[in-house]
Amino acid sequence: xxxxxxxxxxxxxxxxxxxxxxxxxxxxxxxxMDVKSKSSLAIVNWAFRVVRVLSGTKVxxxxxxxxxxxxxVLYVGNHRSFYDIILTYPKVPRPTGYIAKREMLKVPLxxxxxxxxxxxFLDRENVKEGLKTILEAVEKAKSGISICIFPEGTRNKTADxxxxxxxxxxxxxxxxxxxxxxxxxxxxxxxxxxxxxxxKKATVIIEYGTPIDVKQLSREExxxxxxxxxxxxxxxxxxxKAEYFPEEAKGRE
Length: 253
Prior knowledge:
Layout: H1 2-17, H2 19-31, H3 33-54, E1 57-62, E2 74-77, H4 83-88, E3 96-101, H5 110-116, E4 120-122, H6 127-142, E5 146-149, H7 171-176, E6 180-186, E7 202-208, H8 219-223, H9 225-244, H10 246-252
Parallel strand pairs: 1-7, 2-5, 2-6, 3-4, 3-5
Antiparallel strand pairs: 6-7
């Protein structure tokens, strides 16, 4: 429980003490939005790195060379933990907006930083509003801001399984003309979700796959792009599971 208390204390202190910084960032944004995007990203990434250290989490990154530096991308990942965002955000090479559930807007101060980082808030109960969010994401991607989405739609609570990937999520890449980068996350739930409310030391593997250029796909292939990316992430997940956690993988067989 000590780690949990320390992490929560740090997050609360960061959010409260960063209020003056939020104001400065808001002022910067009035004159230069690009500078604000980069500085806000650096500030929040620092906080995320501190949370990772306080949590005792080791992260092994693979395939980072697959992420293009000269264009926005659509990151698509599997989702098992709150830590998925904390661990992946510090690795993005350019301002990136994560698509989060609309309920996050209710979290004081945190929602402000999320907006500064171009995050979008998806109303999963309202199809019309959900479409608006997707269109906003398309415009951001066109302007050079990467987007990250977890197309399972919610955190998957069952280990070593994958919920269906919603095909609509992939329209962002198709309409914005940006590549899809599969992002496979292995063992993130071992930090927190597998033993709530304790935070325990864990090793997490994050692997970025080869970018998929939607423009190069046929119409039929575009219709099933969700299943295609899901298959890539599944294969990568179980390959890493067998390599880094052989005992768990063997128990699964």
